[in-house]
Amino acid sequence: MPSSSNPPRIEVLPIELIHPHEEYDPQILLGITNSIRVEGVVHDPLLVETDNFMILDGTHRYWALMRLGCPSVPVALYDYRSDNVKIGCWYRCVDKKPDFDTSPFMQARVVPKEEGLAAVEARRAQFSIVFRDRSYVFDSKFNIFDAYRFLSFFEYGLSGRGHKLSYDTERDAMERLDSGEIGAILAPPPITKEEAIRAAITGRLFPKKSTRHIIPSRPMGLDIPLEWLRKGASSADSSLRELLAGGDFKKLSGGAIIDGRRYEEEVYIFEPRSFGGGFQRLRSP
Questions:
Q1: Pairing mode of beta strands 257-258, 261-262
Q2: What is the helix (H) or strand (E) element at residue 110, kind and residue range?
């Protein structure tokens, strides 16, 4: 991915302009809402595209601010038409191998492992269940919204059977599967940018963790007081300008690990000039 020379533009916008394209997890939302209320700050701006103000990252913070009655929201803005902004999938990682021989969900054909992955990548299948030696492919008339609803229903069924699911990038999920760390992967079809925008505009939202946006750079280290966001966007944006004028961004190349998470994109850490301790949570790749 080409290197970006600057962090994205950061500002405060009226919250009614912002559009999610994914649903939220009630438990995660409750935790984030309570955290923002208790701490009195929002950690880092939401990542939003410039044309329709669709959320690329930060859905739960958006809903939390809505619940807290904030009319304003901090955002970092990205050109969604740019080739530097890409869209990928979150693969569902299943902790142990499910017993599909007795599963009431099992209405799939068995194919070689790579064929199952290719079927979802080409959007010829609703989704595939991928094992180390084979795939189960769920075929039907393809519709991206129906595919993700079916996937969400299947996830719920596995959770009800005692399985633990986690989410990972396509590459990292396959590495975990091949190493035997997990028992299977639920591989969904990729969503296009146009389909994500359609969901945001129409309000027909995808389930949580449907898209994984790959961006050129990400701002971090910004704590925006909740009291600012309880005011109008113009007033809050003026306060944000003063905050940004009093500090600098430290650039980290892609691959940096912060709080245990590896970021593929460049990361720009905001440091107030009066703050001499550095950003203690990060380490270089």
A1: antiparallel
A2: strand 109-111
Contact 279, 223 (CB under 8 A): no
CATH number of 9-85+206-283: 3.90.1530.10
The per-residue pLDDT for range 77-119, each reduced to its tens digit, is: 999 999 999 999 999 999 998 876 545 455 788 999 999 999 9
Give the right CATH number for 90-190 from 3.40.50.300, 3.30.1760.10, 3.20.20.30, 3.40.109.10: 3.30.1760.10
123-167 pLDDT, tens digit per residue, is: 999 999 999 999 999 887 889 999 999 999 989 889 888 999 999
What is the spatial distance between Cα 259 and Cα 247, in angstroms, rounded to a whole number?
A: 22
CA distances from 118 to 93, 122, 135, 218, 231 (A): 18, 6, 10, 31, 49
> From CA 221, how far away is CA 46, in angstroms rounded?
13
CA angle in degrees (0–180, nearest 5) for 50-230-225: 85
